[in-house]
Amino acid sequence: MVFRLVVTLTNKITEIRTLFQSETKSVFVSIDSINSLKTKYLGRKGIISGLFHQLRDVPSGDRSITGKELNKLKEEITDVLQSFLSQVSRTDIQQHQISEDIHLPGDYIRVGSLHPIEKTIQEVKRIFSSIGFSVIYGPEIDDEYHNFEALNLPKHHPARDMQDTFYVSKDVVLRTHTSNTQIHVMEEQEPPLRFIIPGRVYRNEAISVRSYCLFHQVEGLYVNKQVSFAELKGTLEYFVRNFFGDDVNARFRPSFFPFTEPSAEMDISCTFCRGGGCSTCKKTGWLEILGCGMVDPAVFEKVGYDPIKWKGYAFGMGIERLAMLKYRIDDIRLFFNGDVRFLRQFT
Amino acid sequence: MIVSIDWLKTFVDITVPPEELADILTNGGLETDVLPGRTTLNIELTPNRPDCTSHRGIAREIAVLTGGSLKPFSVDLQESSKELTSNFISIENDAQRECPRYAARIVRNVYISSSPSWITKRLEACGLRSINNIVDISNYVLFELGHPLHTFDLSLIEGNKIVVRTAEDGENFQTLDGEEHQLNSDHLLICDGIKPVALAGIMGGANTEVTVETTDVLIESAYFDPVTIRKGAKALNLSTEASKRFERGTDYEGLITALDRCTSLIAEFSGGEVLKGIVDVYPQKFPVNKVTLRKKEAISIIGTDFSDSFIEKTLNGLDIKFSTVNGDYICTQPSFRPDLEREIDIIEELARIYGYGKIKPDISYHGILGNNLEDEENPISQLKQFFVSQGFLEVVSNSLLNKKEAKVFTAEDIVTLQNPLSQEMAAMRPSLFAGLMKAVSYNLRRGEKDLAIFEVGNTFSKSISSLTGTAEKLELSGIICGNKSPKEWKGPVYEFDYFSMKGYMDALVLFLKAEGTQFRQIKDHQIFSSGQILLSNDGKVLAHFGVFLQSLLSIYDITTAVYGFTVNLPNVLYWLSKPLLFQYLSIYPGIARDLSFMIDDEISVGEVSKIINKIGGQILKQLTLYDLYKGDQVEKGKKSVTFNLFFQDSKRTLTDDEVDVILKTIISETSKELNAKLR
């Protein structure tokens, strides 16, 4: 009884092999016929699966040899069907052959783009976010107090000449910098603080190649128990390296802003001439890109922070200026007239 | 300010070439360029440094920045006359607050001529025209020491006295440039016994000007309150070499040195005799300000280890007198440095002279500060990215526009400017469409006709509830016009139309995953002739869109149809910030069926869809209108609409029979409600 089973299974393997060979000899090779053969022989309820099922009844001594033979048959069938399949695929491609000239243009797909100002703001945000700065926004129309007085810019101070201002009413202005938001945040929150403020600012200046009546700024503020000018330098140099690349150098030189003391301007080595001297950098090899400094204690007093306990640094940069240097744009008005030939370049 | 290198050399040794000198000054905080010819420098002065408005002041900077020393300067004045100044003039100060100190000297029997060439050369180098020896000398001392002086023809001063008083509102005065000014009580006047003779700190009067006939000269050297001078000059829109210095704060102690220097040069180069004594009205001396500089604090704020010897050398170089107490420096604020009031101001001087470049950058990262907030515009960036991926170009436009233009877009009150650059920029935009329209018009004129653009920005309106009287709203608006695509070899050109716009809005709803959003028609819109709003399932307006009125387009010379939309960002942000949850995918096959009806032309497809959706219920996964026909093949006044319906259940396989039952109900309901006939 046992002997008969082994013989039967071995015979069956030979039988199935012959059957498969005869079936594949006569068949017209098509995807459908291959798939039906695959189901018939290799499917979950197929012939091979049935034979494996019978293997359980073969005595353990012979099971391994018979099993090997069965596996060999399965491999043979798989290989043959696979080779058929690859032949068929080739024929199928021929069936889908393109009758048109393939050098004809492709379908028109509209490609959009972000504005270079937005791209630049996103880049600045990304860099400062990576070193722990939050992002905060504030109003474009504000009272004089938040735009000037609280920033240590009293009404009749010559420093007011540094920023020509649009007035909405007697004490209400279009902000001349996003520093107004520094004041709002400090009025509402206790230190420590670390954030940047991107936004639109206005200056009452005639429109020309180099200046526009509005522009975008990103300002930063960091307030903590111990903050040093050396940290301000470290942070801004990190920014410059990330934004312009490792081969750009930064230099800091003393300047004056009513809201910072000490104050500094940061220059970078000219991105046009690599420091050699050209018309953009007025032959100096340096380009002014931002103003910064340690928060003036008078500003902390205005918002009710104890200037003995808290120190801070602040910085501010013009986005158009950064974008003009990065993309080598020579006319600031291009940002604002909506010329699609300009915008399409920033995909 | 333009300075002469040759002149600077009278105060400090300069051995470096001009370019290097300019670099030294620039790195010290005075932005300096070498002017053509390489004998003069142009220095951009910051408003906090009145002490640098002179050659002596710049020389002090050069000395301290290069480690050199400032040459001593003193005036050797010979009072050659036996007469007393006070016999000829007395000072009556009725404006003590505005003029804390007023001093004067007299030189008699002067001979008015041209100046010696070394004076005219130096003045010309600094951009000043030579007038006569007296005027030139007062200008010379101004550029040498930084203190403005004024010279009067003494014979024209009536009543032997000088009166300092504030002007009366509406009082008139003619300055020596011939201009007639109307003054107000902010102005300070220098008068004689009868009449005003100078607009204090700004410009002298025509009536007492030094001329070729002058023989006796009264020289004024005073300290005027910076705010008074600033207000006065601003009110007249007048800025002079004198006013620029007074409004920054002049040297209230050094003004005597300037007076003596001027007097001595006038005596020397005009042959006059100097009267004995100064008349000097200075009743309330400026208090001496002592500032404690703590070395530890300086090191902590700058992040650099300053040595005692460096600190001492720097203080000395800046002419700051100091003593040391317990390691702290007790500094006396110099009278010529109004900017050095506090410890932090002196710390800045240390850092500045040390050199910002030498301070080692520190890249300590202080971890999360507890107030780290998420960027609230992140979702807006996502939305921008959505429109960019639909092929839209982002524009940024001017938020200032013409008032009349602004009113086209809103029925509300607009925000206007008191001092606009021009009438074209006198109002704040009430809508982003104004800028987008200008962009369309700009591009059309350049042959760019097929446009899909958008902008994100604030729009402005009046608001009584806010402190500034204004309100700002962040919006996203977009516009499409022209063709969807250029002419292509494959087939016809499709124009953007109302349904292209609507398609973008459908896509927006999908992107937002704002299920249940309905489109409602808007009637009598201010800017659209036809349009719809998108109403979310909780009744909030997500967006509105439409086709612009021809009357609006004609303002911008646009003749083609333009479609626009505005997304209401606050309402949309809710959907963008909603947590995203995976929807179960049904493993059971669905059933698709078509239904074609004939309905009256005036019946909206929306009404048919509404009935189908209601009856179809949960298992009607998708309803698509794929054919709409009006014309010869159907009866007049009718239209044929064909829908594809796709049914699927998430828990089981649907049977044909149950779908048929639903279809039958749809057919009978649409027939009853809308008189629809199955085709």
Structure report:
The complex is a heterodimer of chains A (347) and B (679). With 347 residues, chain A is an alpha+beta fold. Chain A has two domains: 2-95; 116-346, BirA Bifunctional Protein, domain 2. Chain A has helices spanning 2-26, 31-42, 47-55, 60-95, 116-129, 144-147, 179-188, 229-244, 297-303, 319-327, 340-343, and strands spanning 134-135, 141-143, 167-169, 172-174, 193-202, 214-224, 250-257, 260-269, 286-295, 311-318. Chain A has a seven-stranded mixed beta sheet with strand order 1-5-6-10-9-8-7, sandwiched between helices. In chain A, a hairpin with a 2-residue loop joins strand 7 (250-257) and strand 8 (260-269). The mean pLDDT of chain A is 89. With 679 residues, chain B is an alpha+beta fold. Chain B folds into five domains: 2-66, Phenylalanyl-tRNA Synthetase, Chain B, domain 1, CATH 3.30.56; 85-281, Phenylalanyl-trna Synthetase, Chain B, domain 3 (Phenylalanyl-tRNA Synthetase, Chain B, domain 3, 3-Layer(bba) Sandwich), CATH 3.50.40; 290-356, 2-Layer Sandwich (Phenylalanyl-tRNA Synthetase, Chain B, domain 1); 378-577, BirA Bifunctional Protein, domain 2 (2-Layer Sandwich), CATH 3.30.930.10; 591-678, Ferrodoxin-fold anticodon-binding domain (Alpha-Beta Plaits). Chain B is 30% helix and 24% strand. In chain B, the strands form eight sheets. Chain B has a seven-stranded mixed beta sheet, with helices on both faces. In chain B, a hairpin with a 5-residue loop joins strand 25 and strand 26 (541-548). The mean pLDDT of chain B is 94. Chains A and B meet through helix 5, strand 1, strand 2, strand 3 and strand 5 of A and helix 7, helix 10, helix 12, helix 13 and strand 19 of B.
Question: What's the topology here?
Answer:
The complex is a heterodimer of chains A (347) and B (679).
Chain A lengths: L1 H25 L4 H12 L4 H9 L4 H36 L20 H14 L4 E2 L5 E3 H4 L19 E3 L2 E3 L4 H10 L4 E10 L11 E11 L4 H16 L5 E8 L2 E10 L16 E10 L1 H7 L7 E8 H9 L12 H4 L4
Parallel strand pairs in A: 1-5
Antiparallel strand pairs in A: 2-4, 3-4, 5-6, 6-10, 7-8, 8-9, 9-10
Helix pairs in contact in A: 1-3, 1-4, 2-4, 3-4, 5-10
Chain B lengths: L1 E3 H4 L9 H10 L3 E4 L5 E5 L10 H12 L18 H4 L1 E4 L7 E8 L8 H9 L7 H13 L4 E4 L7 E6 L5 E3 L5 E3 L5 E4 L4 E4 L3 E2 L12 E7 L2 H11 L4 H6 L8 H16 L2 E2 L4 E3 L8 E4 L1 H8 L5 H10 L3 E5 L2 E5 L10 H12 L23 H12 L3 E2 L5 E2 L1 H6 L18 E2 L4 H13 L5 E12 L7 E12 L16 H15 L5 E5 L5 E8 L5 E8 L1 H6 L6 E6 L1 H9 L13 E10 L4 H12 L3 E10 L8 E10 L8 H19 L2 E2 L1
Helix pairs in contact in B: 5-6, 6-9, 10-12, 11-12, 13-18, 19-20
